[in-house]
UniProtKB/TrEMBL annotation, chain C:
Gene Ontology cellular component list: plasma membrane
UniProt KW keywords: Cell inner membrane, Cell membrane, Membrane, Transmembrane, Transmembrane helix, Transport
The organism's taxonomic lineage, starting at the top: Bacteria, Pseudomonadati, Pseudomonadota, Alphaproteobacteria, Hyphomicrobiales
Similarity-based family: Belongs to the binding-protein-dependent transport system permease family.
Protein name from the UniProt record: ABC transporter permease
Protein source organism: Jiella flava
Length: 309, 375, 269
């Protein structure tokens, strides 16, 4: 048996030998065993805990009390949708998520393209290290690094003031701009990683062919590479969007509490005010917002796939 | 108020859930979390003498990083040796949700070090702490404390510093001369404070209520004052505010004075302005959880007793420029140079807000001030 | 071999440079801050020295936290890679509605705030009495939950590109389905699995939000130790700790680049 198997390695390289035999594509026996560990793990340690937390959102809010009671109410949701502090946060979160996805796409695509098309392995490794190393920068320390750069007395403002371009320092952090910069920093590597794989699967010969038929470089890119990158663009954007609207630490540190997004309210209500039920309701709204984004993504992906075939 | 016990099925139903999970074989790992015998935990007393705890472990909650290293060095390492025990140190703030998640009968920590609002909040949520008179009766060193140490009705305060403004001295601006100077136009756009749920901001807010309104709980006056102080840099914690002041992003901010004196010794051009009416204090207070097994409870009392020891408070004061609550503790030279004294006069007018009253309204205050900061 | 036609157009280089600036400049600032000779965090540094590096290496807080995070990330990587790869293969093979639903389910941890997942898990472990609360294993469970989606996504991407006819060939020669899978498929998607594993390691090592409530007394992961430390004092030691964290990523990336060619790692041809 072992001998037969080692032989099959060589056969792979010679597909001609399998011609004439009808491939038998029977399902692998007991295939479901593969998904069992992950499913059980998620059921016990993710679905059950999160469901019991979100379930509490239908109970009356009593500070410092934790648990599910059968007296249900929608009070917490009414509160979210009738107070602008919380209601506006939904749109602020979504807006920031969309903006960060767009910026990451614009910044990430060129770098992903260069990494995907670079032929020298050492260069690919160096670029990859540069992308990945920023993922390991602790958020609180990153805050310090960005303060040096973006603060009122930071390097950028010093340069702008010295050059006379501005007369007063620009506020580049402790506001929405700062949050977007922080989130782009954190999520950009994920966008780049999602794009590299997809771009690499587009044979360069496709673009060369388009150009040999007289298309300009830009046109070749727009009509060949870009459409073929769509799956990566969509999945990368979804990933970045999800990470952005669920981030607590970046808006907390970079927003200077001027950018109140949903996760900040969740944290304040639960961890600091002990209002578990209300915090759970905000978390549920955040969760549904993300789900909506996933559905939109799914539709877009299906539409693009349909358009191509 | 609703009966809290009825509303805590997570806690009340634990045994049923345990049975269910035991059925699943999940609890069969040989570790039991529920071997606590509450029946006799009330009868524990402590007389100040070291004893052999037989290698028992107690878990405490206190601040992390350099603070933790200092506590290890001046208190915990020796404590572990003297009492033959192990101290587990948890520094991942906040503590309040962890208490609530576990319930009073299964406290996450034996001894907890707090700022007052979070402590009051936890006490309000359930029967979590040993009553203060029982605590004092079993902490022999409590006899040597100033009355201020007990002025919180729940735990024992072992260190404090005064709330103040920190301001840059290199700006050429006139230093602040009153609490209200914070609002002066010379500091426009250069003011700093903290997020609504930070104790420093709570005290600053209540003091502003008092300065601009009819009393410390005149919230409308406080909201108005917060609006007028905008734009402010709002920080999450003191470490971040230090960096903002050190970098000159903020020229005046709320701070505790010990921290500023420390910054001064590092050569940072800053100084302290203390306001006198009222004189709020940032406190470090320790509580002992009510329901613990007897050995744990005795160890907890012993640890609090050691914290009230003048020698320990003197040593920590040297490091953090905090002031002691023990009569016989010595102030560090850095504080004496600033004119600080450890006598009855220095402590008699210290102000602690009515936190229970604040917490009743916290919900509205947090929402409103959040809205002001975000505008 | 290839003519200049194949060169990458200049706008891509400009965009790449911009992206690299955004990513790398804060890293450089932190590195320089960690090498600062001054008494507190200043930039530009007041001269260079190794004093904060030494302070990190002798720190009773940061070094154990660093090692703890390393162990945690390694364990997380091992579990997430195995269960994530298995699930990805099932999703790919099974297809259909059920696979789609489960794929959506496995992505969910990415769309909820880490603090909510950590808190929910903490309350769950405490209230059910599972002996995992406030232990290494509780923390490990939380990390596996948030890293497995990344492994599933990466491996699924690698499988999309995989040519099933190779496996069919092996099976037509008498190999069982499982044999064909282990001998043919697994080696071919090893690049994708490697990328997923690297992702899981890095994300676990840098994880803050999920760890916040799950972290254990005494031993904390590095990001939590840095956070709880910086809350009270901004010290260059933390920046030095950052240097070592970055060094770890560089090392692990170089090692994986040696083990699997990066061009293959991204599913290239």
């Amino acid at each position: 048996m072992a001998a037969a198997m080692s032989k099959s390695d060589a056969l792979v390289l010679d597909p001609a030998r399998s011609i004439g035999r009808r491939p038998v594509r029977r399902p692998m026996p007991k295939l479901w065993l593969l998904v069992l560990p992950a499913s059980l793990f998620f059921l016990i340690f993710f679905i059950l805990p999160v469901a019991s937390l979100l379930g509490m959102s239908f109970n009356k809010t009593i500070p410092g009390v934790l648990g599910f009671s059968s007296a249900l109410t929608l009070d917490n949701y009414v509160r979210i949708f009738t107070r602008s502090l919380y209601f506006d946060a939904i749109f602020r979160s979504v807006g920031i998520g969309v903006l960060v996805s767009l910026v990451c796409l614009l910044l990430g695509y060129p770098l992903a393209y260069v990494i995907a098309r670079t032929k020298v392995p050492a260069r690919v490794t160096v670029l990859t290290i540069l992308v990945l190393s920023s993922m390991q920068l602790d958020m609180v320390i990153r805050l310090y690094g960005l303060m040096v750069l973006l603060g009122d007395n930071g390097l950028i403002n010093q340069m702008l003031l010295a050059s006379g371009l501005v007369s007063a320092p620009l506020h580049l952090m402790y506001n929405t701009f700062g949050v977007v910069v922080g989130l782009v920093q954190v999520t950009l590597p994920f966008m780049i990683m999602s794009l590299i794989g997809v771009i690499r699967q587009i044979p360069p010969s496709f673009e060369e062919a388009a150009r040999s038929l007289g298309a300009s470089r830009a046109a070749a890119f727009r009509h060949v590479a870009l459409p073929l990158s769509m799956p990566g663009i969509l999945s990368g954007s979804l990933l970045v969007f999800a990470m952005s609207i669920s981030s607590y630490v970046v808006p907390a540190l970079m927003g200077g509490w001027k950018v109140l997004v949903l996760p900040i309210h969740v944290y304040q209500q639960i961890a600091e005010a002990g209002r578990w039920q209300f915090g759970a309701a905000i978390a549920a709204v955040l969760f549904l917002t993300s789900l909506l984004a996933v559905i939109v993504y799914d539709r877009a992906a299906a539409y693009i796939a349909g358009g191509r075939s | 108020m609703t009966d809290r016990k009825d509303r805590m099925p997570f806690v009340a139903n634990r045994r049923q859930i345990l049975k269910a999970s035991a059925g699943l074989g999940l609890a069969a790992t040989g570790v039991s979390l529920f071997n606590i015998n509450h029946a006799f935990s009330k009868d524990v007393s402590y007389d100040g003498q070291p004893f052999d705890a037989g290698g028992a472990t107690i878990t405490i909650a206190e601040w992390g990083g350099f603070w933790q290293e200092t506590m290890r060095k001046h208190l915990l390492d020796k404590f572990e040796k003297d009492f033959n025990c192990k101290v587990q140190y948890d520094s991942s703030f906040p503590w309040f949700p962890k208490f609530v998640a576990s319930g009073p009968k299964n406290p996450p920590y034996a001894v907890t070090n707090w700022n007052l609002p979070e402590m009051f909040k936890t006490a309000k949520a359930g029967d979590y702490f040993m009553p203060q008179d029982e605590l004092i009766a079993n902490v022999p060193n409590a006899k040597g404390l100033w009355p201020f140490a007990k002025q919180n009705s729940i735990g024992l305060t072992w260190a404090f510093s005064r709330y103040c403004y920190v301001y840059r001295t290199d700006t050429g601006l006139q230093p602040p001369a009153s609490f209200q100077d914070f609002w002066d136009k010379r500091y426009a756009g250069k003011r700093g404070t903290y997020v609504t749920t930070n104790t420093l901001q709570m005290v600053f807010f209540l003091t502003a209520c008092g300065a601009y309104g009819k009393d410390f709980y005149d919230y409308d006056a406080g909201y108005d004052a917060m609006k007028k102080a905008m734009p402010m840099k709002v920080s999450d914690f003191t470490g971040n505010m230090q960096a903002l002041v050190e970098r000159g992003e903020v020229e005046i901010a709320v701070q505790n004075d010990g921290e500023v004196y420390l910054q001064k010794t590092k050569g940072i051009p800053v100084d302290v302005y203390l306001w006198d009416n009222p004189r709020p204090a940032l406190t470090q207070t320790k509580t002992v959880s009510r329901y613990l097994d007897p050995v744990q409870k005795k160890l907890a009392l012993a640890l609090v007793d050691r914290t009230m020891d003048p020698a320990f408070q003197t040593a920590v004061g040297e490091v953090f420029f905090y002031r002691p609550t023990a009569r016989d503790a010595k102030l560090p030279k850095g504080l004496i140079d600033q004119g600080v004294k450890n006598d009855a006069d220095a402590l008699k007018d210290l102000w602690i807000p009515d936190w229970n009253r604040y917490l009743e309204d916290e919900d509205d205050i947090v929402e409103t001030v959040n809205g002001i900061f975000a505008s | 071999m290839r003519d200049s036609n194949d060169a990458i157009a200049w706008p891509f280089y400009v965009g790449s440079a911009l992206a690299l600036i955004v990513l790398v400049v804060p890293v450089l600032i932190v590195i320089l801050t960690g090498l600062n000779a001054g008494d507190y965090m200043t930039f530009p540094p007041q001269g260079l020295s190794l004093r904060w590096i030494k302070s990190f290496l002798t720190s009773p807080t940061f070094v154990p936290a660093y090692l703890f995070s390393f162990g945690l990330a390694a364990a997380t990587m091992a579990i997430a890679t195995v269960i994530g790869t298995m699930a990805a293969i099932w999703i790919q093979r099974r297809g259909g509605r059920l696979a789609k639903i489960l794929r959506g389910l496995f992505i969910l941890p990415l769309v909820l705030p880490g603090v909510v997942i950590g808190l929910a898990l903490y309350v769950f472990l405490i209230s059910t009495g599972l002996p995992l609360a406030r232990t290494f294993y509780g923390l490990l469970v939380g990390h596996v939950i948030v890293t497995t989606p990344l492994v599933i996504a990466t491996v699924t991407a690698a499988l999309v590109d995989f040519d099933r006819s190779l496996e069919d060939a092996a099976r037509s020669l008498g190999a069982t389905a499982w044999q064909a899978f282990f001998r043919i498929t697994l080696p071919l998607i090893s690049g994708g699995i490697g990328a997923g594993a690297l992702f899981a390691f890095i994300v676990s090592f840098g994880q803050f939000e999920v760890s916040l409530f799950l972290s254990t007394p005494d031993l904390q992961p590095l990001p939590i130790a840095i956070y709880t430390s910086l809350r009270y004092r901004f010290e260059p030691t933390a920046a030095a700790a950052g240097i070592f964290a970055i060094a770890l990523v560089v090392t692990s990336t170089v090692i994986s680049a040696r083990l699997v060619n990066f061009r293959r790692l991204f599913g290239g041809r």
